[in-house]
Amino acid sequence: MYFLVRKLTGRGSGEALETEYQGDKLTLGAEPNAMVPLPGVEADVTVLAEGGGGGRITARRPVITVDGVASRRASLQPGDSFGLPGYALEVIAPPQGFDFALQLATEGKPVSAFAGNVNLEEHTWSIRRSSWVLALLVLAVALVIPALGLWRADVASTLRSTPLPDDGLWSSGPLVSAHQAAGVSQECQACHQTPFVMVEDAACLDCHRGVNEHVDLAVHDAHAFSEVRCGACHREHNEPAMITRRDKGLCVDCHAEPETWAVAGEQTMAAVEAFTAAAHPEFQLALLEPQGPGAAHGWEINRQRPGAEPLREQSNLKFTHEVHLDPAKVQHEGSGEALECASCHTLKDDGEHFEPITMDAHCRSCHGLSFDIFEPELELPHGDLRAAIVAMEAHFIREFTDPELRRQRAAEKPRRVPGKRDSAASCEGSGLDCGRAEALKEAQYQFANTGCITCHEVMETGLEDINDRWFVQPIRLTGDWYPHARFDHTSHLSRASDRPDEVCESCHEASVSDSAGDILMPARDDCLGCHAEDTGAAALDCVSCHAFHQATGTLSRVARDSAILQGEKP
Amino acid sequence: MRESLLGWHHYRYLKWALALLVISVVLYATQGGSGAAQPANGGTWQGYVLGTVGALLIVWLSALGIRKRSYRSNAGTVQGWASAHVYLGTILLVVATLHCALQFGINVHTLAYVLMCAVIFSGFFGLYAYLHLPGRLAALESGVDQQGRLEELAKVDGRIRDASERCDANLQSLVISALELTRVGGSAWQQLLARDRSRVMIPGADDQKSRAASNTEQEVVLRHLAARIPDARKQSEAEVLNELLALFGRRQVLLHQLRREVQLRGLLKIWLYVHIPLTAGLLVALLVHIVVVFLYW
């Protein structure tokens, strides 16, 4: 295509300079590569010839002025006039051989040559337009696209597996490490099951199936606890991560006013407002109480708070810590060293409780049950009175019915230790009678003078029959004095001391206890010394000592699945 | 003396803002700690209060921006609003930071916070611009506005064109190219930078092609004209050269002022191109933040 541009020069003199251009289009403007250089028109103006001398003009910005209106494009016919900043142009009839012809004149003032370039508005997006674009972008990315997954699980997983925005953008913080697991960490709807509804207990219990309630709903009115959600105590998405609230209110919100959920006819729990002398009751001991004479009917746990009178343990045991810890009186069998706490008390792996004290493991090495001086390694069985008597009768009957053994022993009898028991050498009856008589004598000695009676209370019934003549009262030692509390011996034993037992004795005053009935458990004041809330020392929260989910509570899954917590009593 | 934007009514809104600051800090301090149900965050009751205050502030500050578009108006209450806008907008930074307790992540909540910060910091630039640039602009204008300067430039250019017709072809093409290749303004970025991108075509001797050279501050053409004066062979040629030198000297001053004026006017406005669209984005992000908090309760 051939273009002709006639440039009027001079001032109104009619002089003109004609230039020919060839190409598929004619470009005008301030850019260096424009065919017709027009300083000041920075809008890349392009003209396309459309036949008959007409054409179409377009510009990057609205700079084409036709009849005083600025636009970005216009259709032109020969005779039409239009303006560009600083220039007046007219479409003229193209001479022979040309497709399009323009007459170009510089406007009188070059003012407009700069006018278009000195206004910021013409060179930026309008504020309104930018605002709409940004607002809609935020809306789409942050809300609309992630929300598509709310209705369709497959859309949600597609969004999560691609770089597209998903509902992870809505997370208000990281999950605790335990929840950084497949099926929870990415799947917001595993917990947030219904939009605009707080996370429901059912969502928690989907995974946590073995959790018990705090209370036994068979005892307490479930209605009083119907407002309690898992989420009331367990909060997610926090920094620092803290799944369980540790504040006092966790317990005190309810326990400050125990009368609100008291059970009719039962004693109300003591109120707790803080761990201080004034606001926390004395610890309640779980005391084993023997039922019937000599615990003939077993044992029952009786919860008691210490009062003015000191409580006594009723284990039926004869024992004093004072004697056993006195180095002058009791020493290790082998080394001759004094006993220490750890000689008998071995901490269990839980760090709180101790292995049970047993006759065989802890007492027998000193308090052996041997009954025949000629066979000191032979000992009576422990814990079974009938078996002990049978063992003695069998032993002595054998001795008196075996002539060879009898002769051998009789020769040594005079060397018996004086003051023990009478010589059996004088027995002249049958082996059976002599053996039985000897067994009875030995039993008398074991039950009433040495052996059993060292540690046990022994009742003598006065009955003839050897099997019914004595009753050895059983011993039951308390394994868990504070069954509802948690305590870590390990951390407390880490305190420095010169003698290991000093640490133990700072809480359990064993070396001055002269009775097995003494309760050596530390009481509230021992703990308050360090842990009182109002002293600001090593203050503890309630759940440091008390577990919330009780072993004795109702299984949560059962309680919450049923209508119990909606106020119905089971 | 005219009351400044910041000191309006004896720093009334500064006092309001400081009061709000103290209340917010106290509110924040009552949450968290070892005895708290949860660490300080936007979900405690204090967090909700701080968040609500922050959201109301954002909406109110935005509405203010819509209502009052021209800070250059000196109508008393407008300045009061502007003063409140500045102080309460600044305190919003503290209120929102305490609301979120410095918990950030890649999420819509932090998006709202980041947008808010961007709006506030662009506002700080705007405040700087409104406090300092009008004075500089006034000093520059010295009674002549942009239109007047452009008209004078047109007159000078006309006289240069007239005078150039009395010169030889080489000089004429040099002078006319200096006029035509003068650049003022341009794109938004060029307007703000105000760098002189003018060029001039220096005619080559005899057969050589002419070449374009940078004509920053019209220096090349001025130097060229000055160098030609001693070589003038005729009195009339010297007169023309002198006249052109004087005209280009004036042109240099006018163009420099024009560029600086365009730059200052641009700086006065450009931050609004950031401040207002970001505010729109912030309002939507705030809405999303609130909806989402309750959507995933």
Automatic annotation (TrEMBL), chain A:
<keyword id="KW-0408">Iron</keyword>
<keyword id="KW-0813">Transport</keyword>
<keyword id="KW-0472">Membrane</keyword>
<dbReference type="GO" id="GO:0046872">
    <property type="term" value="F:metal ion binding"/>
</dbReference>
<feature type="domain" description="Tetrahaem cytochrome">
    <location>
        <begin position="179"/>
        <end position="255"/>
    </location>
</feature>
<protein>
    <recommendedName>
        <fullName>Tetrahaem cytochrome domain-containing protein</fullName>
    </recommendedName>
</protein>
<dbReference type="GO" id="GO:0016491">
    <property type="term" value="F:oxidoreductase activity"/>
</dbReference>
<keyword id="KW-0349">Heme</keyword>
<dbReference type="InterPro" id="IPR051829">
    <property type="entry name" value="Multiheme_Cytochr_ET"/>
</dbReference>
<keyword id="KW-0249">Electron transport</keyword>
<feature type="compositionally biased region" description="Basic and acidic residues">
    <location>
        <begin position="407"/>
        <end position="423"/>
    </location>
</feature>
<keyword id="KW-0812">Transmembrane</keyword>
<feature type="transmembrane region" description="Helical">
    <location>
        <begin position="132"/>
        <end position="151"/>
    </location>
</feature>
<dbReference type="InterPro" id="IPR036280">
    <property type="entry name" value="Multihaem_cyt_sf"/>
</dbReference>
<dbReference type="InterPro" id="IPR012286">
    <property type="entry name" value="Tetrahaem_cytochrome"/>
</dbReference>
<keyword id="KW-1133">Transmembrane helix</keyword>
<dbReference type="GO" id="GO:0030313">
    <property type="term" value="C:cell envelope"/>
</dbReference>
<keyword id="KW-0732">Signal</keyword>
<dbReference type="Pfam" id="PF14537">
    <property type="entry name" value="Cytochrom_c3_2"/>
</dbReference>
<feature type="region of interest" description="Disordered">
    <location>
        <begin position="407"/>
        <end position="426"/>
    </location>
</feature>
<keyword id="KW-0479">Metal-binding</keyword>
Automatic annotation (TrEMBL), chain B:
<keyword id="KW-0472">Membrane</keyword>
<keyword id="KW-0812">Transmembrane</keyword>
<feature type="transmembrane region" description="Helical">
    <location>
        <begin position="45"/>
        <end position="66"/>
    </location>
</feature>
<feature type="transmembrane region" description="Helical">
    <location>
        <begin position="270"/>
        <end position="296"/>
    </location>
</feature>
<feature type="transmembrane region" description="Helical">
    <location>
        <begin position="86"/>
        <end position="106"/>
    </location>
</feature>
<keyword id="KW-1133">Transmembrane helix</keyword>
<feature type="transmembrane region" description="Helical">
    <location>
        <begin position="112"/>
        <end position="131"/>
    </location>
</feature>
<protein>
    <recommendedName>
        <fullName>Ferric reductase like transmembrane component</fullName>
    </recommendedName>
</protein>
